[in-house]
Design a protein that fits this description.
This protein is α+β, with helices and mostly antiparallel strands. It has helices spanning 2-28, 52-60, 81-86, 98-101; strands spanning 42-45, 63-64, 73-77, 91-93. A hairpin with an 8-residue loop joins strand 2 and strand 3.
């Protein structure tokens, strides 16, 4: 019985990672393909260690948009998509993706 639980846990983790990769590819296709500085804000998702998303944006030469940030993400502009990724961003998402992560009175 213990082996079944471990198997389900491992397969769930693999499915989650694969799902995130598919979502990243799908959403990245919606981002501008140009290599220049992004005019519109993007949601920069980065690991929480080494300063988190704020440090990634600073290293990329971008600027954070808005007064507050989430632990793993910030809205940012002022750098190219490749600069954000080279600075350590896990994902770059369209800001409309915030609707998937945030709960409001309208979504409850």
């Amino acid at each position: 019985m213990k082996n079944v639980s471990a198997y389900l846990l491992m397969s769930g983790g693999v499915a989650a990672v694969l799902g995130l990769e598919v979502a990243n590819v799908a959403i990245a296709a919606q981002l501008p393909a140009k290599s220049g500085v992004l005019d519109e804000p993007v949601l920069v998702v980065a690991p929480p260690w080494s300063g988190g998303a704020e440090a990634v944006v600073a290293a990329a030469g971008g600027a954070i948009v808005g007064p507050t940030q989430a632990p793993l993400s910030v809205l940012a502009t002022g750098a190219s998509a490749s600069d954000f990724r080279q600075s350590g961003a896990w994902f770059l998402l369209d800001p409309s993706a915030l609707e998937l992560f945030c709960v409001t009175k309208e979504t409850v």
